[in-house]
Every structure is written in C-alpha cells, then in structure tokens.
C-alpha cells in the first residue's frame, strides 16, 4: 500500500480507503463488516470513512467497534455531519449547535477520543459560512477533531471557505470528498484546479461507480444474483451507471486492463490515482475478497498511451 498526503496537510492516508456508505449497519451483517475492516487493516489501509447519517449512526458504531482492537494512532478515522439525525428543527445542517452536538454523538458511537477528519457532508445555505467554520475551528482547538473537511461542495463554496478561513485565521479545510469516477468527472474542471492551488486533498467516493466499473455487469445480460444492483437497500442511484452505453465502455476498458494484467476495477482506481490531487479512493466492500482486489490498484502506473486510449473510450 502506498500513502499520500492529504493535500498540503502533514497527515498521510492510504491510496485506497474503506468506506461504509450503503453497507455497514445496513445491508452487510456486522460480523462480516468487521471481517472486511480487519482485512483492510491487514492490507495497509489506514483510512476509514463513515458518517453519522449512514443508517442513523449504526455505521459509525460498526466501524468504531471493528477498529477498537487496533492502536488509535495507527489509522485515520473520518466521519461527517449535516443530514438529519432527528425530527427537530436543529437536528440537521451546519449550525454551531448541530455540529457541536453531532461531533460529541459521533465520538460516543465511534468509541474514540478524537476524529481525524470531520467533514461537512453537504453545504448548508441556511447557516452563515463563518458560523460553520468557527465551529469546526473550535473543535480543532478542543482536540475533538484534527482536520476539517467537506463533501460535495462547489468550487465557489470551497473558495469562499478558504478566503474566510484566511481572513479570520481559522483552521483551513484540509479535504474534499466528491463523487469521482470514469463516469462522473465534474470535479476536473474547477474543483481540482482550486484544490491544487489551495492545498485541499480529494478523498473520492464511489470510484467504481457502485460496482459498474468492476465488469460484473454485462451489456444486455441479467443483473448478477446477489449483486448490489439487485438489492433495494443499496441500489439507489445506479440507473445511470448501468445504462447500456456505459456497460459497453466497460467492455472496452477490459482490453486495457488485460494488457496491463490487472482487473477492470484496478484499472478504474489506478486511473483516478493518476492525479496528484487525489489523496485516496474510498471503496466499499461487502466481502473481504473485494478488498484484496482493490488494494492491488495502489502503486499501479498507467502509460501515456493507456491513458489516452481510456480518454477515447470515455469520450
């Protein structure tokens, strides 16, 4: 496993991270989830990502329990805040009240004294940005979080956060967690250039397009039994990536993967890691053997010719 700095911050995260969206605390049994975390740790993954909103806190409890057997300094633990955690008017968003209360709740569920990366799960237009940034800065000062990050913020929102942090001498946003894969490339236009300029590292989610870039789904063929696409608990938002035109592209990508003696999934991850601004690819897993395969993408370097051929296929 290779490791990269989180933007300009000193902390280093594994090129492949393990996430818990749509899996732990829900569609994956707790015992199996723990086995997956164990396998990831054994293979050198040190970056584990979750969120308070994943199954209403259950994912945090599963991840925290699975990691509790390991020395706290040996892994980087990330969680998030924004989405509703109750029915009250202050049970969502990025107000100081919600951030402070949910940080304490996440610490309790995770069973740790501090969170390495605390991320704003979305932008909150109803809360002044300065209020949000000051709350995060206070959490850093209190030692409850080490770094603050965001997820799915626009370039304008990120830039505003950077400027406000500089103006008021607040702890700067260290990371951004966007959707990024071969089928979703929006961040290349504005987010990455800005992040490179300001030292913000990307920890991308859904790098395999919810499994579409593994090659398991075939054009014109029935969905594999037991796959995520057949599970109503976790197949939301898969319609686009399972379109016939997308699956045809995956078939063409297989040729490049075979030429490099790697899987399509490893090719897709290595392609993302071609960019220096990417700190980590957050993969999901429902079985330990999936982690075995994904970590092999770390360190794979694709040739200029391979990258151009991929561009031609994705165009």
From TrEMBL:
Top-level taxon in the UniProt lineage: Bacteria
CDD domains attached to this UniProt entry: Aldo_ket_red_shaker-like
Domain NADP-dependent oxidoreductase positions: 15-314
Similarity annotation: Belongs to the shaker potassium channel beta subunit family.
Keyword line: NADP, Oxidoreductase
Organism (species): Chengkuizengella axinellae
Membrane spanning stretches: none
Name of the protein described by the UniProt record: Aldo/keto reductase family protein
